[in-house]
Amino acid sequence: MGHEYPKNDKQTYQKLPAFYNPVSYDPKEWVALAKAAGMKYITITSKHHDGFAMWDSKVSDWDIVDRTPYKKDVLKMLADECKKEGIKLFFYHSHLDWYQDNYFPRGNTGQTAGRPENGDWYKYLDYMDSQLRELLTNYGDIGGIWFDGIWDKKEADWRLDKTYSLIHSLQPACLVGNNHHLAPFPGEDFQMFEKDLPGHNTTGFSGDQRVGDLPFETCETMNNSWDLTFRIRITNQQRI
């Protein structure tokens, strides 16, 4: 997560999946560790800002099964293990996408990705919803969707009502949160705060954020890098 920028253009970046082969990935060990630590849920990245799907997507071949030597659906493996052990599974999912040409007009990031100067914004949103449908129909009960990336262009029509309705129609118990740094929108089930406590703005991310009445969650790093992140669910300012 975070507001990093792509260091390479899209053409160069497409070469990288060929080198990605996480042969030591062990979802059983991950879930066992989380459970032993008293955790109730795990949040894993389904798609980050680079647009790469960490599951076997059927609406795009820009995914771990089609583009890497690993050839396995890591989200399915984790979902199956979470179900066995009674751990809720959340997906971090990026609204922002540096790979898809239809993510246009571009926002504040991804300006050097080498995409064309045109695109159909609503086709991109249709694509995003199609991938969410895959995640919410093929991976069992999903505890929540943890959105990120609207801050890239806050004034765009993100069509949240349609996306949130899709999620709740497919999985009524799936919680929706969105790291947009704004006041909560209808259809959201908890409000998140990036590297800050509710009402604080020490990072400068939350200048437009307004604290609402939903349960709170803060995401914080353990080492000043987004590689290691923990999340604390807060209700009425109390940790739960």
Protein described:
- The chain is α/β, with parallel strands linked by helices.
- It is built from six helices and eight strands.
- It has helices spanning 10-13, 27-36, 64-67, 74-85, 121-137, 160-170, and strands at 41-47, 88-94, 144-148, 175-179, 191-194, 216-221, 229-235, 238-239.
- The strands form two sheets. Strands 1-2-3-4 form a four-stranded parallel β-sheet. The chain has a four-stranded mixed β-sheet with strand order 5-6-7-8, with no helix packed on it.
- Helix 2 (27-36) runs parallel beside helix 4.
- The longest helix is centred in the middle third of the chain and has 17 residues, at 121-137.
- The model is unreliable at 234-240 (pLDDT under 50).
Keywords:
24% helix, four-stranded mixed beta sheet, 6 helices, 240 residues, alpha/beta, disordered C terminus, four-stranded parallel beta sheet
How do the helices and strands line up, and which of them pair or pack?
Blueprint lengths: L9 H4 L13 H10 L4 E7 L16 H4 L6 H12 L2 E7 L26 H17 L6 E5 L11 H11 L4 E5 L11 E4 L21 E6 L7 E7 L2 E2 L1
Parallel strand pairs: 1-2, 2-3, 3-4, 5-6
Antiparallel strand pairs: 6-7, 7-8
Helix pairs in contact: 2-4, 5-6
